[in-house]
Specification:
Layout: E1 2-11, H1 15-18, E2 22-24, E3 33-37, E4 45-59, E5 62-74, E6 77-84, E7 90-95, H2 96-105, H3 111-121, E8 128-132, E9 138-143, E10 150-152, E11 155-162, E12 167-179, E13 185-195, E14 217-226, E15 229-238, E16 241-248, E17 251-257, E18 260-270, E19 277-284, E20 290-294, E21 301-306, E22 310-317
Parallel strand pairs: 3-11
Antiparallel strand pairs: 1-4, 2-3, 4-5, 5-12, 6-11, 7-10, 8-9, 12-13, 13-14, 14-15, 15-18, 16-17, 17-20, 18-19, 19-22, 20-21
Helix pairs in contact: 2-3
Length: 319
């Protein structure tokens, strides 16, 4: 059996990307100020899809299939950055007092040196509020932005935007299911290979056009299904993939999820004395595998998540 299909699909952006409003980071530094905002004007992702598959049913309940798929995607959502003086705040790190301190102390001056210079030389400025200890020694204080002498704070706001380019995602799928006669035993194997032609450039400090969440996957399942007893054990694998193109102002930090597998099982029995009653036991991630996220290199561990093994025992009744 040979199948061919063409279709067009659209997918709305997530609510967190569509909602308005701007959130800024709680503090600033010499590297700048940053924040994030939603974008109610996002267009839905559009995809033109092509699928071609061949299937061979060589026995009852047994088959082999091979397929090719291609998706031409537009309006892919990516991260853009805009400059904004959203609150019209004066920046104490970019004004006359700061420049005077930097000029007097040189480029190697520390933040503390600059603050102390301003406290000592601009003590009469109402926006400079030095603090002294019991011995009359300078002990920090507060420097407030002055709209008359300091430039407005510029926030680098990260905003989800629709990409201008068209991306092509394609790949192959292979499946096989085999039943061992009438014994009730069987097995399933499938493998999906996917590629977008775009890879994140880990050697660049600038954001890279790359699609997140794409990776090869595979599953191996052995099962028994006969006379009301069903048993299934599955090995599920996913290759490493780009999880997030993290952008913070001018800085980028790609986050990858390392390749991962887990083993699950499920056993259920349809109680013959009560029609519709099934008892079951199941186990998820029974070998207690961890999920690892890393940065530009696998040695740069971002986090390790342990969900643990989970087991369940229960009953189901259908009526």
């Amino acid at each position: 059996m040979i199948r061919a299909a063409a279709s067009k699909t659209i997918s709305r952006a997530g609510y967190g990307q569509l909602q308005g409003g701007t959130t800024i980071n709680t503090g600033g530094s010499l590297s700048g100020y940053s924040g994030g905002s939603g974008n109610p004007g996002l267009k839905p992702l559009e995809s033109i899809n092509y699928d071609l598959s061949s299937e061979w049913y060589y026995g009852e309940g047994s088959y082999i299939s091979f397929g090719y798929f291609k998706k031409d995607v537009t309006n892919w959502i990516t991260t853009g950055t805009i400059d904004s003086n959203i609150f019209n705040l004066a920046d104490p790190l970019n004004g006359e007092k700061f420049r005077a301190a930097s000029s007097a102390l040189g480029s190697n001056a520390s933040n503390e040196d600059i603050r102390n210079y301003i406290f000592e030389n601009f003590a009469d400025d109402p926006n400079v509020q030095p603090k002294f200890d019991e011995d009359g020694e300078l002990d920090g204080g507060t420097i407030v932005g002055d709209p008359d002498s300091d430039d407005p704070i510029n926030f680098r706001i990260n905003v989800p935007v629709n990409g201008d380019q068209e991306y092509t995602i394609d790949g192959f799928e292979f499946n096989i299911q085999h039943l061992f006669g009438e014994s009730g035993f069987g097995g399933i194997f499938n493998y999906t290979m996917v590629d977008s032609g775009l890879e994140y450039d880990n050697d660049s400090l600038e954001d890279t056009e790359a699609l997140v969440g794409l990776s090869d996957t595979a599953n191996v399942v052995f099962f028994y299904d006969k006379e009301g007893l069903q048993a299934r054990i599955a090995y599920n694998w996913r290759d490493s993939f780009l999880n997030e193109r993290r952008v913070n102002g001018d800085l980028t930090a790609p986050i990858y999820t390392d390749e991962y597998y887990q083993i699950d099982f499920n056993v259920s029995y349809e109680v013959p004395a009560v029609e519709g009653l099934t008892v079951f036991i199941e186990g998820i991630n029974i070998t207690d595998e961890y999920v690892t996220s890393y940065g530009r290199k696998q040695q740069l561990i971002y986090n390790i998540t342990q969900t643990g093994s989970r087991y369940g025992l229960g009953v189901r009744y259908n009526f």
